Amino acid sequence: xxxxxxxxxxxxxxxxxxxxxxxxxxxxxxxxxxxxxxxxxxxxxxxxxxxxxxxxxxxxxxxxxxxxxxxxxxxxxxxxxxxxxxxxxxxxxxxxxxxxxxxxxxxxxxxxxxxxxxxxxxxxxxxxxxxxxxxxxxxx
Amino acid sequence: xxxxxxxxxxxxxxxxxxxxxxxxxxxxxxxxxxxxxxxxxxxxxxxxxxxxxxxxxxxxxxxxxxxxxxxxxxxxxxxxxxxxxxxxxxxxxxxxxxxxxxxxxxxxxxxxxxxxxxxxxxxxxxxxxxxxxxxxxxxx
Lengths: 140, 140
Hints:
- Two copies of one chain form a homodimer.
- Chain A has helices at 42-64, 104-118, 120-125; strands spanning 2-10, 14-18, 24-27, 71-80, 89-99, 130-138.
- By secondary structure, chain A is α+β, with helices and mostly antiparallel strands.
- At the A-B interface, strand 1, strand 3, helix 1, strand 4 and helix 3 of A face strand 1, strand 3, helix 1, strand 4 and helix 3 of B.
């Protein structure tokens, strides 16, 4: 079982989430609805989770293939339904920037295995949104 | 468009996610797979997002109903598929503890509207998991 505890920190909407090891993160609502902008929005967490999940898989796969990944940066973007409540994501895109002398075919395979096969967050979001990806290798 | 940037902070899997206002959160993998436990796991973020989203709706609705909510604490639990990769959530439960002299019917309505109707994260997770909720009012 996975367990998360939430408590309110300040104002109406500033919340802290804590896992069973004591790791914490902050969420808050937009000032437009009375929030104080002291943390990510809940719907932003879904994109962060997708980026984290797919990146961890990519890093693991490249490590097994003895590819020396010097650094990795990821941008996740999402489009939500317009003028709806609830407003789900309709399209989500993950772009990976991979740094190092890396084999393009191995990177392509790692990224596709991650997003299309292994990542539990991607599979969850795919039920309601189109999830796509792209990558670039930077060997500077 | 919603946009999140991720970069690696340390080790193989310790990542930081940043939104467009500069709010940040940490993720990391389990030490079992080579992580260093410096943040929440990506799949834990989904539960934190669900708790945050539904709580913000509950707080808003009770405020409109002039209910004086002194504090709120939330526990979110999830069961994942066993021995599968990916391992999606199959059941997710949100339990709200609401503090104050609150009208039980109004709380019941706020909680059910939030989880069953308004919360975008709940609607996203419902596509692949059963999402349930419960609440208690603590007037001490």
